[in-house]
Amino acid sequence: MERKDFETWLDNISVTFLSLTDLQKNETLDHLISLSGAVQLRHLSNNLETLLKRDFLKLLPLELSFYLLKWLDPQTLLTCCLVCKQWNKVISACTEVWQTACKNLGWQIDDSVQDALHWKKVYLKAILRMKQLEDHEAFETSSLIGHSARVYALYYRDGLLCTGSDDLSAKLWDVSTGQCVYGIQTHTCAAVKFDEQKLVTGSFDNTVACWEWSSGARTQHFRGHTGAVFSVDYSDELDILVSGSADFAVKVWALSAGTCLNTLTGYTEWVTKVVLQKCKVKSLLHSPGDYILLSADKYEIKIWPTGR
């Protein structure tokens, strides 16, 4: 058939086809398909894919794409990022989606950071760390060998780890090398805290002691508790030491003099944690920068002013 005749025939067929009902159009297409060979079927398949499969993320306005993405879970979104560069670009640019994903993991969100890629990276790092924790691959482990009895007390600071043991000793370790820096004879240690010059220990013998690292000498001995001392903290700036005990009390001591300044009571269980720290927010009783004492037993946390 000549090209001109074919075009005339095609126009007539098209007009007739458009006048048919949907059912008649379907029957016509079925008949034409049955008459088609491999070349025609391949042509039909290639063109149908283009007509039927729409890339909505590419075609929709960005605001609508972001709205739809909010309904997908993060794992599905990460899978979608693998479809093509365009999908990855759109999904990675949705700040709200990745901020929400981080928030659901317990992350504290800084709303001033609106870089979507930043929050996506934060989410991916968090997921990786959780997977490592689950598979016991998050940390390298090593053993510090030296004590001859139970190690009950630990305190870590600036790459150094202090251990207190029932073998009547405390040791200071360099965590990176595993080497023991100092080892001194003490009492049984239930709590330890240290700095460059000294070590403070709370003991099952109901006392608190201060030791000098360089000589191993005991420089102060704080007596007054009637139960084991499970927690200690101190401040050189305030020259005070605090201790929490199994006698349901917290004691405040003069660090340099070794005298008891105050005994805080009202607890119904062992006091297992005491912390001295600067207040960071304003309240009715404290201003930012004021030192406060926090203490905890099994059921409650108490906040005490230090007057400093």
Automatic annotation (TrEMBL):
Q: Per its UniProt entry, which superkingdom is the organism in?
A: Eukaryota
Keywords (A to Z) from UniProt: Repeat, WD repeat
Q: Which InterPro entries match?
A: F-box-like_dom_sf (IPR036047), F-box_dom (IPR001810), FBXW2 (IPR042627), WD40/YVTN_repeat-like_dom_sf (IPR015943), WD40_PAC1 (IPR020472), WD40_repeat_CS (IPR019775), WD40_repeat_dom_sf (IPR036322), WD40_rpt (IPR001680)
Q: PROSITE patterns attached here?
A: FBOX (PS50181), WD_REPEATS_1 (PS00678), WD_REPEATS_2 (PS50082), WD_REPEATS_REGION (PS50294)
Which species is the source of this protein? Answer: Mesocricetus auratus
Protein's name according to its UniProt entry: F-box/WD repeat-containing protein 2-like
Checking Gene3D superfamilies in the record gives:
1.20.1280.50, YVTN repeat-like/Quinoprotein amine dehydrogenase
WD repeat placement: 144-183, 222-263
Span of domain F-box: 54-101
Give a yes or no for keyword Disulfide bond in this entry.
no
Q: Which residues form a coiled coil?
A: none
In terms of PANTHER family, this protein maps to:
F-BOX/WD REPEAT-CONTAINING PROTEIN 2 (PTHR44436), F-BOX_WD REPEAT-CONTAINING PROTEIN 2 (PTHR44436:SF1)
